Structure formats: structure tokens, C-alpha cells
Amino acid sequence: MTILDKVTALLGEGAVLEAGTDRVPRIAPGSPDAVALLLGTAHQEGWRVRIEGAGTWLQSDAPADLALTTRRLDRIPAIEPPDLTATAEAGIGLDQLRQQLADRSAWLAIDPPGLAGRTLGSIVSTATAGPLRHGFGPIKDHLLGVTFVTGDGRMVQSGGRVMKNVAGYDLTRLQAGGFGAFGVIVLVHLRLRTLPRADVTYLLEGAREDLTQVGEDIAGAGLTPAALELVSPALARRERWVLAVRLAGSPALVAADEAGLGAASGGGRFSPLRAEEAHAFWMRLAEGFAVRPVTFRIGGVPSASDELLDLLQHQLGDEWISASPAAGAIRWTGDTNIDRLQRLRRTLAGLEVPLTLERAPWPLRGAVGHFGAYREGVGPLVAGLRRTFDPGGALVVATEGS
Amino acid sequence: MSALSHLGRDLSAIVGERHVREARAERVTYSMDGLPTHRRVPDLVVLPGTREELIAVVRLLAAHGVPFVPRGAGTGLSGGALADEGSVLLVLTRLKRILRIDRDNGLAVVEPGVVNAKLGAAARPQGLQYAPDPSSQSACTIGGNVAENAGGPHCLKYGVTANHILALEVLLADGSLVEIGSPSGEPWGPDLVGLFVGSEGNFGIATRITVRLTPLPRAVRTLLADFNGLRTAGEAVSAIIAAGIVPAALEMMDQSCICAVEDSVYAAGYPRDAAAVLLAELDGRNEDAVVAEAEAVAELLRKSGARSVRTAANEVERERLWQGRKKAFGAMGRLSRDLVVQDAVVPRSALPQVLEAISTIAKHYGLVVSNVFHAGDGNLHPNISFDATDPAVKKSVEAASAEIMETCIAAGGTITGEHGVGLDKLRYMPLIFDAESLGAMHAVRRVFDPDERVNPGKVIPVHACREWASANLGASPRGQQLARAS
Q1: pLDDT (0 to 100) of residue B298
Q2: Is A247 in the B-facing interface, judged by CB distances under 8 Å?
């Protein structure tokens, strides 16, 4: 029997999708239990499994015996507006989830890079936060709990559906940003906010150094933007760098911040965007990071932002960059090679700045790894956790690179 | 003479004789934390004074295969920092240096024994704050906060401890050091900081802690609303949250708690005849916005049935209102000789019916239960006043506590929101996690501590775990024994 025959017998024909260009069988389990069954079998049979969502973010090119896609795990079992919580399966597209939440006046305050249909599981497992991290924190801050299936087919629950929870170890935070190395996320409990009653975006164009200063002035003036993002000209499709400020919240809060924005603009003038323009701007920014072959993020302290931007410009070029200086986060996308990326990671490690490779073709990410440059003693812990949650090494994830 | 007294000389050589407590009378001092229902006398108590001493002590204990329990100020409420016979208690309160405050980047680096409120006081002149503010903040330590993922009233807006820890230097059970996290908060790989925070000491000791400091609010408004019924007060909480306003804090106290506070030196001017009071605080960096949101909240409170809503006129009045809330646990000491501070979380919308169910449970067992809690988070603290010297009453307290936990779980909640599992809630863990999930947690613990020597017997009820092969099991003699046993 071929692998495909065995999987068909196990999960039914409905779970077998058309294979991709590399002809790796693509399997779409229809339930968390089916994921557990598939991975349990893969573990026993010694199959290598790559994890996919909608196929819009990480390239579907890792060498594997089969591809497990979560796209049929697309239900939303619960949305509780009074509690501001929701439970959604990992394969739901963020666009669909957003719409259903908005229908109930609820909001998941994340704006990750990627296309609109990117799955929730992909966003959580890669911890790819967007500009809203400035006001609402990283992806992990929006999670109340997850259910995941380990590489040997065990189903594990972590966290819960309530706002605070310290029962047991926080395996949810291990899964957020684990890139699937510790299991396949199948269900996510989310912390929501009320849909902001006021939501406006302003842009200011200028030289990067000037805009960085304006960003600092905004923080110093006591404004509380939801997003404060410095965007390179190519990514913003403008002549010069752009500082994008998003104000979202109660009308009183937004009005107060709008009033303070002018004073903090360093002599320049912020231009307000109409609602549809703002939507298009942020969407284009997010999608820009899914177009080019390599995307990574680095995290440095706010005072190092300028230096880090210079470093990226020097080593890789600065065509497509988005930075949230106050949150210490910079995202770069473009084309590069293994040597340059490894050299950059080493340089950054010397500055105490981690580089997380978010997406890249397999030859590059297999060599460089999503992670790397661990501090002393961390490597064995990560390896131990990996062996715990995937004892047979069934899950194909480029953690540290070759 | 303790079973571990043979180590006394070597430990004294490291930390000094006066910082090793061997006499039983001295060790008994450390036999409890803030929860009066558990008591364990450690075999030895050691108080290292520097990071280097701490490392040397842990390495010595590793060489002898001796279990140990890290402890901060001992203000925990889950029996989490108690050491059994055969274990050494490592008290970290002498490691109390604030190593660095970096104003430009909004962070501080501290030793684990730094008291929460002292870090806040040190940050304030820089225009910064350390936001997590457990009620015990005048005594509890940052190391303890990290171990328990401590919360506090202002965590509604600012988040709990886990949201404020950027990086850690961790001393593992074998005496090795690892650095996890980074000053920006971006991890070097998987989020081991997130995994470590709240692990109740089971993964090691945080020897250096990098915390996030946030700008101090420039404007604050504190409102006190009183209600005729707990249900009405609970509904007012839902109305505020549904309006999209995130107060800095939203705290509720029931009548029993109000009266205890008003009878104490912490009297805050709460109306004694109210069934509940709600303390709502709005803060921010813009005066106009805070005033507007405070007015909106006041209106929502009135519409939701508040008998009256008053705003603290000045800082003195605000502090008085908060003192009543923060010292409520102390004030309840007037009600009886012992107090169990319970901790559970329910969905916010379930607050009214859960509060009524708790009242029914209290009546059934003939117990005084006072509620003071973080209403905005749905984080309940039903406090049972009792006399622990009466075995029958103690049994009733345990039964009532169990029923309260079961009620919260049935409402979709969990058994602890900020106090931790420790010893006290081990028995409830199988009610919220299946054997597989408990087994996974147990296996993760063994990755950090294969011999299970750090704070043994806490958090995970091992008997309820499905067996997982652990990656690091077998890496040490005790690990090999455990592996053979499993």
C-alpha cells in the first residue's frame, strides 16, 4: 500500500486533496481527532510530515512524505461578545474570522503580515505580529489557550477560555512562535476586544531619521497609538519613508490623540486617510511581506532601531522594511542568500538582537533555520522540548537549520 | 538536627553560618506561606546573599542530589513555596538589587528578591512604572511574581507578569545557567520566557530578571460605585466592558468584605449598607480622554443600577479608596483567626450566577465567605474566614473550597488566575486537564529538571498523568531510576 492508500483508508477520500507541484500528497483532516490519528500513524510508520495552512505564507516546499493542511479545520465553535472571547479552529482564515467577529462587534486586535486568507494556526505558530503589536502586544498576548497535536499523535490542551489562567505550565506560549516544532495547533482560544468605535490612520512622509524623531516625540507626548509604523518607500509605494499612525479606541481617546498628533509632527503635516484608503494601506503593507521570497523579523531595543535599520540597509538593502521602533520590532522582506543571512544573524547576535526567519524557500530556511544563535544552554532545552513533543521527528520544521 | 545537617557546614562555607538555619525553631518560621491550610517544615533553610552564592549552593545540592525549593517573601497563596523534609528551602530575599533601570528602552534588570513595590518606587522618578501590582506588592518579590505569573488589580489594562518579563537568566537544577529572552522581548527561538513564567519554580530559579517598564499615566480618575445587589454590580462590569472601555482596574467587594474593611484601620469610606461596591479606575496619558472615559463609565454605572457613583476628589482620597481594596485581606483577619484566600476565574458574563452559587455554598456549610476580586477579569477571590484549630470547620472549608472550584469550572472557568496551583490545587488539576495534557506538562518539567528536584510535588499531580517518555529522562542517576520506574 502506498502512503496515500493508507491515509485514504484512515481518513477517507474527502481528506485527500490535490497534491502540489512537488507531488507530495496533501492531506486535510476534518477534525482535531483526525489530525491526531494521522500524526499517530505517521509516527508509527516513520513518515515525515510538513504542516501547511492555506498555503499563503510559508512556502509549501519542505521535503516530506505528506503535507498536513489544516484548511478543513475552519470552524468557529464559539464567539462570546460579553466575555470578549472566541474559540476557532486553526484552519480558519483570518479574513473570515474577522468578519464573523465584526458582525458581533468584536475585534481580534492583530494585523499579521500575509494575505487576508492566512490561517489562524499559521499566524499563531509563527507569532507573526503586525503594526498593531505597538498598541496591543505580540500574538501571544491575544491567546487564552490552544489545543495541539504532538508529532506522535497526542492531543494536548493548554490554557483555557478565561482572561487569566495560571493552572499548569503555559504550553500556549511555547506553541506561539514554535513554527510547529512542538506540534500542530488545531484549536485556539482568543482574547478579543470590542470593535473600536473610532479608528483613523494618518501618514507622514519624510527622511527616515526625521520620522524616527517624530515617532519618539509622539511617544513622549503621551499619545497612545494602536500602531506607529515606519515603512520604507518601496513597501509604502511612496517617494520617501512613511510614518503611519493608527489611532483606534473610544472616540474620546482617539480625538485626544488626534489633537496631540499635530504638535508632535516635527513641523511636518500628517495626512489623514479615508477609511477605505487606510484599509488599503494596511492591507498592502501586510501583503507585501508574502510576495517576496524571504521574510524575517528582528527584535532590538527601541534605542537601537536606527542602528539596526542602517545595518539591514548595509547588509541586505532596505527596499521592503517595516519597523515598529517603540516596540523594538523590524520586519524585512526581499531576496537574499544563505551566506548573507547567516552573516547577518551572527552580527545581530553580537548586538543581542534575535533574528527569526519567518518564511523562505526550503533550501534557505533548511540551512539557516527559523531560529538559531541560541544563548548558551538554550539549544539543549529546545532540543529536549522538540524530542518530547515529536519523539520520532515526524514534523518537518527547520528550527535551527543545518 | 535535620536529615540534611551534614550539608550545613558546606552550605555555611558558601553563604556564612548565620544564613543557614538548622534549628527547628528557626525552620518552623518558614513552614507556611500566605495560605494557612498547608504546613511543611524544611530540613534546612539557606539564604544566599549573592548570585554567585546561590549558584554555588545549587551546584552543591546538585552534587548531593538534594531537592530544593526556591522561595521569595513567602506571600504566596497556594502552598507553593513550602519544602518537605529532605528538601532545602532557598530563600532569595537577600538578592534584592535593582541592577539597572533603562529609561530610554523602558526596562529594568533586577535580582529575584527585589520587592515589587520597591521596583515601582525606583522606576517612578524616571516616569515609569512596573505595572503588575499584586495586593501583597509591599512584600512580595519579583522572583516570586515570575514563578507564579502574578496579577493584580491593574492587570486588567496592563496585563499580568508574563506580559512584562522580557528576559531571564535561569539557574537550572543541575547548577547550569541559561539565558532566555532578549531585552526587546523577541525570543531567541521558542518563547521559553513565556513557558518559564508561571512554572512555580519547577523549571529553575530566575537569577536575573529583565522587566518591561511602562510610562506612568499622566491622568487618573478613580470611581466608587455602590449597589444593592451583587448581580447588579456584576452586570455593570459587563456593561463597561461591552462599551469598549478598558479601565485600568475594575474591582469588586461584597458586603462582608466592605464591613471588614470599614471596621479596620484601613477604613476607606465604603458604604456599609451596600451589597457590593465597584472600584473603577481609568488612567491614561491624556487628561481629556481620561476624563471623558471616566464620565462614560460613571454613566454606565448609573444606568446599570448603581445607587451612587463618586469620583475621588484628590490623590489622598484615591489612595484611601485603594487602601481599603488592597488591605482587604488583612482586614478580614478581624473576622476570624484563619483565612483561606481562594482564587478562580470565570467568564465575565458568568460572574452574577457564580457569585450567587458561592453564597449558597457558604450558607450550606455555615461559613463566612467574603468576596473581593478582579471583576473586570472575572478573577474571583472568595475568602473563607474560619478557625483552623477546629477539625470539623477545617473539613467544611475544604469541602466548600472544592465546591467553589467545581462551580467555577462548570461555568467555563479555571482553578487559579494568579495564585498558582502549588500544593493546594493539585487535586483540582485533573478536573481541568486530561491525563494526556498533564503528562505533557510533566514531560516538559523533566526537560528542565530531569530529576524533579526543584520544588518537588507541586503543580502537576503525577499520579494523574499519562506517561510520556521524557527527552532528558535518563540523563542523571535519579532520572535513570525514574525512567526504570516508568
Answers
A1: 97
A2: no
